[in-house]
Write a structure and sequence with these properties.
The complex is a heterodimer of chains A (294) and B (253). By secondary structure, chain A is mainly α. Chain A is 71% helix and 3% strand. Chain A has a single domain, classed as ABC transporter involved in vitamin B12 uptake, BtuC. Chain A has 11 helices and 2 strands; from the N terminus they run H-H-H-H-E-E-H-H-H-H-H-H-H. Chain A has a two-stranded antiparallel ribbon. Chain B has one domain: 3-Layer(aba) Sandwich (Rossmann fold), CATH 3.40.50.300. Chain B has 10 helices and 10 strands. The chains are: A mainly alpha (294), B alpha/beta (253). At the A-B interface, helix 6 and helix 7 of A face helix 2, strand 6, helix 3 and helix 6 of B.
Chain lengths: 294, 253
């Protein structure tokens, strides 16, 4: 039992990070109506910015803020340079999604050019200590991840549900033509959405890098877990990303332990989950069913 | 809505010397290589209700879209005396022009109340909340459904919502694209009745495009008839209504 709890808690700690990445995906989806396949690579890029500032001697928290600001700029720039010229995601969803796949490769290449292909090491934000609860050891880093995730969800909830700006972002994501006709400067809000999502990704990267080592492939597996998380939770739901992240983390940690075929296929539980959700509940656990009357 | 709009009393500020709120000259527009408009001229005065009539494909929707900046256009569009051609729609909303597109164009995934609130995006005054409440009083059916998603409402209710949302920006000019489309005749009548009340009480000018000539001519003071991208007739709505030849030739009555 203790063994199971231990594995479960490790999984939930991992899940908090998947949820953070999922959160970035949800933010972009809710502000632009788009699934961004470059989300992971943008997060990797801004995590390198954090690493650079940290290795230049800045305190970690300052480096993270700097990385988030840098990530925001990268996200905003990516939107202005690569996404906006292609067109409105509502009119050409496929074209824009393919652009994000191209961005995936482009941002990855740019990071390799700047920082090389060697893995860098980054210290865990909450140290390497752990605390024992009911005979189960839990790393502070994992507890920290859950707390930071909670704060992020709260902030985004307040932004989307209780501010004029957040309402405008949701209007743009849902119907950009209508949004423009009530006076919302659509291009500026799309840029903001991309920037915010990239800034969120930075935090996910900062939590993953100490575990996996900071390399240009930092996010490639993690992004799949992030997608699994929001597929389960619902593309437009912040809470869904969190619950989805925890479930995906727990499953990916527990299943390989008890079912031997998953040992060699760590991604399989996530894929099975994505398939099952798309088959039986395509809108996810917390997602809004699209209701439209013609 | 007494404090809203009042295009009549504010006619002095920024309006061109001729006093027109909107002045459209030789407006040309189209989609890609397909030209739809070939030099449309029309004016709307402050507080005036004007209708543009025409058959399907005459260019009614294109005219509105060109005026509000949704599509590229040539010629000249003066709003409040200022040339606004080439401006984005959101910049025109700030200047006091609101456009309710065809097919209603509410944000279906926002609630009714959120739709109204977003309509006031360009405003930063304190009366937004009380305006929302006023709309709920004016349209009780919207009030009952304030927390419901806009997409779940009937066509007539969505049309009311779209109009109310546009008026939340307190425009001086409301562009309205075929509000009768897809609505039952009774509902259409209700929409027009409400619209007349609102326009009269707030002094908001309305530029309406419609296929339903009889109804629109009752509602409007002046009318233009658009045919194949050109204005072929203009005059008082009452005169057009009484002219059997015109009715027969252009309005299919």
């Amino acid at each position: 039992m203790t063994d199971f709890l231990q594995i479960l808690l490790v999984g939930i700690g991992d899940g908090a990070v998947y949820a953070m990445l999922g959160l970035g995906l949800v933010v972009i989806y809710r502000s632009t109506g788009l699934l961004n396949f470059a989300q992971g690579e943008m997060a990797m890029f801004s995590t390198f910015i954090v690493w650079t500032m940290w290795s230049l001697g800045l305190p970690m928290w300052l480096a993270i803020l700097g990385g988030m600001a840098g990530g925001f700029c990268v996200g905003a720039l990516v939107h202005q340079v690569a996404v906006r010229p292609v067109g409105d995601p509502h009119e050409k969803p496929l074209a824009v999604v393919i652009v994000t796949i191209g961005l995936f490769l482009g941002v990855n290449g740019a990071a390799q050019l700047i920082w090389g292909t060697l893995d860098r090491s980054m210290p865990p934000l909450f140290g390497r200590g752990q605390v024992t609860v009911f005979g189960v050891a839990v790393a502070w880093q994992k507890i920290g991840a859950v707390i930071v995730l909670g704060v992020m969800v709260l902030l985004f909830y307040l932004l989307f549900q209780h501010t004029k700006l957040g309402l405008a972002m949701r209007a743009v994501a849902s119907n950009s033509e209508s949004a423009s006709l009530v006076g919302i400067p659509v291009p500026r809000l799309l840029m903001l959405g991309w920037g915010l999502a990239a800034a969120v990704g930075t935090v996910a990267g900062v939590f993953i890098a100490p575990n996996l080592g900071l390399g240009t492939n930092l996010m490639q597996l993690t992004l799949i877990f992030g997608f699994a998380a929001i597929t389960l939770g619902g593309f437009d739901s912040l809470v869904g990303a969190v619950v989805g992240g925890f479930v995906v983390g727990a499953l990916s940690s527990v299943m390989p332990r008890y079912i031997t075929i998953f040992e060699k296929m760590p991604l399989a539980p996530a894929f099975i989950l994505i398939l099952a959700v798309l088959l039986f509940r395509p809108e996810g656990l917390f997602g809004k069913k699209q209701v439209t009357r013609v | 809505m007494s404090s809203a709009g009042n295009g009549l009393s504010s006619a002095g500020d920024g309006v061109s010397s001729a006093g027109h709120l909107l002045e459209v000259t030789t407006l040309g527009a189209g989609y890609g290589i397909v030209e739809v408009l070939f030099g449309v001229d029309l004016v709307v005065d402050p507080g005036e209700v004007v209708v543009v009539l025409g058959a399907n494909g005459a260019g009614k929707t294109t005219t509105l879209r060109a005026i509000s900046g949704m599509i590229a256009a040539t010629g000249q569009v003066k709003f409040l005396g200022e040339s606004v051609l080439g401006r984005r729609p959101d910049q025109l909303v700030k200047r006091g022009m609101a456009h309710v597109p065809q097919g209603r164009g509410t944000v279906t995934s926002l609630t009714v109340e959120e739709n109204l609130r977003i309509g006031a995006f360009v405003r930063s005054d304190e009366q937004v909340e009380s305006d929302i409440e006023q709309w709920f009083e004016a349209f009780p059916r919207l009030g009952e459904r304030r927390d419901q998603l806009a997409g779940s409402m009937s066509g007539g209710e969505q049309q009311m919502l779209a109009i109310a949302r546009a008026l939340m920006s307190r425009p001086k000019l409301l562009l309205l694209d075929e509000p009768s489309l897809g609505l039952a005749p009774l509902v259409t009548h209700e929409v027009f009745d409400r619209l007349r009340e609102i326009s009269t009480s707030t002094g908001t000018a309305v530029l309406l495009v419609e296929q339903n000539a009889n109804l629109a001519l009752e509602f409007a003071a002046r009318a233009y008839v658009l045919e194949a991208g050109r204005i072929v007739i203009s005059g008082n709505a009452a005169d057009l209504q009484g002219d059997a030849a015109i009715q027969k030739a252009y309005l299919g009555v």
